[in-house]
Amino acid sequence: MKIFKRNGNYFFDFSFTINGIKKRYRRQGGKTRKEAEYAASKLKAELEEKRRLLSQGIVPPEKKSNMLFSEFAEKKFLPLDDIKGRREKTKMSHLTSIKHLNRFFGQKYLSQITKEDIDQYIKERKNERVKGSTNRSIARPVSNATINRELTCLNQILRLAMKYGYIQKNPASEIEKLKESPRWTILKDDEARRLIDAASPHLRPILKLLLFTGMRRNEALKLVWAFPDYMRKTYQNEKEACSILDLNQALIYIPKELAKNHKARIVPLSQSLVEMFNEMRNGAKPGSRVFNISDIKRSFKTASKRAGLSNIRIHDLRHTCASRMIEVGINVVDVCELLGHSDLKITMKYCHPSIDNKRQAVERLSMIYDGSRNKVDISAPQPSFNQDVNYCKYWN
């Protein structure tokens, strides 16, 4: 067997005979001699197995020709984003992840990628530094969350390669994710009030909607006034989809094309929000935008600064809403449906057990087992600040 280097890559060259037919195998093996030797030995082992099966009269299953990781990611994996109707944000995330993955795995064949390679990739990424989004002059380490997103993308690509028959096993399936520090913040009640008070007039109703319903920013900014048969309307993609504000039924309808989990949902409105939107309408035409603004990043940052709040994000309003709903006794399944979570586990992270709640639970069970079941009030605890389910009046 011959190992040689050409254009920065190592190749292997050997001949192998099966059933009296001699065939030459000359292929790229990797960036190092060791990788080329490993690839050659793996191919030889496969050929030996094929020769053994043929000698026993067994026809081995056809195996697809090998493919470079970069080629498979571009030609097989990325086209599925459009076929499956994935969100634009997901598509951009895949493109960014593959850009970094290609630097390490791009010139490797799918069958060459090992767990050791993936561990080495994690190590190298952790040693890299990137420029910050706010201060470009300051370089910071690549976050664990970023590396985890890339590992998720790698796992999806290799899982698809295994499904299509290019590899027999997915080496990324058993790789442990890195620990992430939670980025989200739960606003205290006085902080939420200060934020609303500090907001400009055009921003204030948007903040109230996000805080009181837990809607996502994109869902709120694409809100339009209700039009006939709005629930039957279909959209080609996420870009043209809109959420619908129906004041007659006191609800917001979010179509599946706009929802992150691709499931349509209904968000009920409290009386406080209905009154707020009635004041805003002023004869607006059905189908027209409720908020005539495309983004609120800058105005939100200004309001946060005025309120004396630092390091908070717009998405933290959604986290705050979810946490408060759990605290006031709203059923966790209802919260999951209201927020449009794809899995109940996502909602469960807002459930923080307290000693008072646990004491109340054991006291109720004690009364039941003592024969006093009829005397036990097992209804959900009522909100301590107004019956309004989304606590709108609490912050008004």
Give an account of the 3D structure.
By secondary structure, this protein is of the alpha+beta class. It has three domains: 2-55, no CATH class; 69-163; 189-351 and 388-395, hpI Integrase, Chain A (Orthogonal Bundle), CATH 1.10.443. It is 46% helix and 12% strand. A hairpin with a 4-residue loop joins strand 7 and strand 8 (251-254). It starts with a strand and ends with a helix. Mean pLDDT is 85; it is low at 378-396.
Strand content: 5-15%
- How many E-type strands? 9
Adjacency order of strands in the biggest sheet? 6-7-8-9
Mean pLDDT: 85
Task: Summarize the main sheet.
Answer: 4 strands, mixed
Could you name the CATH homologous superfamily of the largest domain?
Intergrase catalytic core
Alpha-beta classification? alpha+beta
Count helical runs.
16
What does the radius of gyration come to? 28 Å
Apparent shape: elongated
Stretches with pLDDT under 50, minimum 5 residues: 378-396
Calculate the terminal CA-CA distance, rounded to whole Å.
79 Å
Q: What is the share of helical residues?
A: 40-55%
The CATH top-level class label of the largest domain: Mainly Alpha
List the secondary-structure elements in sequence, H or E.
EEEHHHHHEEHHHHEEEEHHHHHHH
* Count of spatially separate domains: 3
- What is the CATH topology classification name of the largest domain? hpI Integrase, Chain A
* CATH architectural grouping of the largest domain: Orthogonal Bundle
